[in-house]
Specification:
Elements lengths: L1 H29 L19 H15 L17 H21 L12 H5 L8 H9 L1
C-alpha cells in the first residue's frame, strides 16, 4: 500500500513538472519579447491579440481534426512544414470568398465560409458527391 502511494505521488509530481514546462514553451512559440507581436505572421493581422490567435488556432484544430503539430514544428514561427503554407492559402481563400461573395449580401453573411464548411473535422475537404451520398442515407 505504501509503495502504491509513493508511485502515485511520484507520477503526480512528474506530471506537474511536465505541465509547467509545456506552458512556458507555448509562450515562447507564439510571442516575441514585445506584447502581442508574433513571429512570421503573413496572412493574419500583425496586431492580433494572443487570445484571438489562440482561438483561431483552436478553431482550425477542430475544423480539420488535427493538433498543432500538423502545421507547426516545435518552433511555431518556422515555415518548415508545407501544411502551414497550405493553411495560409486556405485562410486567404476563405477571406476572399467571404469578402467578395457573402459580405455584399449583408453583415450576417460576411463570415459564411469557414474551414469547417468543407473540412468537417478532416484534413481533406469533403466533396459534394460525398455530402450528397451521406444525405441520401
Amino acid at each position: 500500500m505504501k509503495n502504491n502511494f509513493i508511485y502515485l505521488f511520484s507520477f503526480l509530481i512528474i506530471g506537474f513538472v511536465l505541465m509547467s514546462f509545456s506552458n512556458i514553451a507555448e509562450e515562447d512559440y507564439y510571442t516575441t519579447t514585445d506584447d502581442n507581436n508574433f513571429k512570421n505572421l503573413k496572412i493574419l493581422p500583425k496586431d492580433i491579440s494572443k487570445d484571438s490567435l489562440m482561438s483561431l488556432m483552436k478553431g482550425y484544430n477542430q475544423a480539420l481534426g488535427v493538433k498543432c503539430n500538423h502545421c507547426h514544428t516545435m518552433d511555431k514561427s518556422s515555415d518548415d512544414k508545407h501544411e502551414k503554407e497550405i493553411a495560409r492559402h486556405m485562410i486567404k481563400l476563405t477571406n476572399e470568398l467571404n469578402a467578395k461573395e457573402f459580405a455584399p449580401i449583408g453583415d450576417q453573411y460576411k463570415n459564411a465560409i469557414e474551414c469547417a464548411t468543407c473540412h468537417r473535422g478532416s484534413t481533406k475537404p469533403m466533396n459534394d458527391t460525398k455530402l450528397f451520398m451521406e444525405d441520401k442515407k
